[in-house]
Design a protein that fits this description.
The protein has about 90 residues and is mainly alpha-helical. It is built from 2 helices and no strands.
Length: about 90
């Protein structure tokens, strides 16, 4: 009986060790995925900034440069405001 109990405890300890190792690997995969998404977000933000620069340059063909920048900045602020307003409406629901 003592031998069976000892084997059961050893098996339980081995199972716990295996679960901990599996959890470590899962956590490492999750950390890697979060890091990759963070880098992707940086690239998307850079691409969006370049898109805004392209819009400014396009508007500068028909407007003075300062006006093109103001129009682009104003449109960006307006877009951000609409997104915040939608977020507030969504939270209030």
């Amino acid at each position: 009986m003592v031998l069976a109990l000892t084997e059961l405890i050893i098996s339980l300890i081995d199972l716990i060790k295996a679960e901990i190792e599996l959890s470590k690997r899962s956590l490492l995969r999750l950390i890697l995925a979060v890091g990759l998404v963070a880098v992707a977000v940086l690239f998307v933000m850079s691409a969006f900034a370049l898109l805004l620069v392209a819009i400014c340059m396009l508007l500068a063909l028909v407007l003075p440069a300062w006006a093109a920048v103001l129009v682009t900045a104003g449109a960006s602020f307006l877009f951000a405001g609409v997104l915040v307003w939608l977020a507030i409406l969504n939270v209030k629901r």
